[in-house]
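This protein record is not my work; I was only asked to verify it. Where you disagree with what is written, explain briefly why. This is what I was given:
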Amino acid sequence: ILKYLYLLMFPIRFADRIQPIPLPRRSYEYQDFENKLAIASGWGRYAMGAHAISNVLRYVRLRIIDGWTCKRSFPLSYHSTNICTSGKYARSTCNGDSGGPLVVRRKHTKKRILVGLTSFGSIHGCNLGYPAAFTKVASYLDWINDETGIELWHESSNAIVFKKMLKDYER
């Protein structure tokens, strides 16, 4: 995930709305986040049948649902390394959003944390009330470490090492 920052052709310019986001704690691998409100964002279609992806970054607030409910919707695709969100009110991620972030806000610090990456949804459509599935980032922290060399001890170290990587990148 982070390794690809080195492949960018230009430096990242941070602003109020463009910031790095901390990776989750290792303990988040065992959390289900059920009933937590999350934000998903992406450049995908706003509805099935839309002919093009969005030319603006869109976001949606989604409620995280339990794994059992998700498994009923996706019996062959759902795994414990997924987090699922409700499609209530016909709101969800859609085609073209894959790889985009699913973010929750920590209760006490109010800090936003990356917990998921948009993965898949229902073949019936993204605006019909079906759940959407995300890859649980905490399940892949070892892989992230192996691929990037980033030591993931705890949340604050992620931000420090990430900022160091960005400074190195901008040179």
About this structure: The longest strand covers residues 112-121.
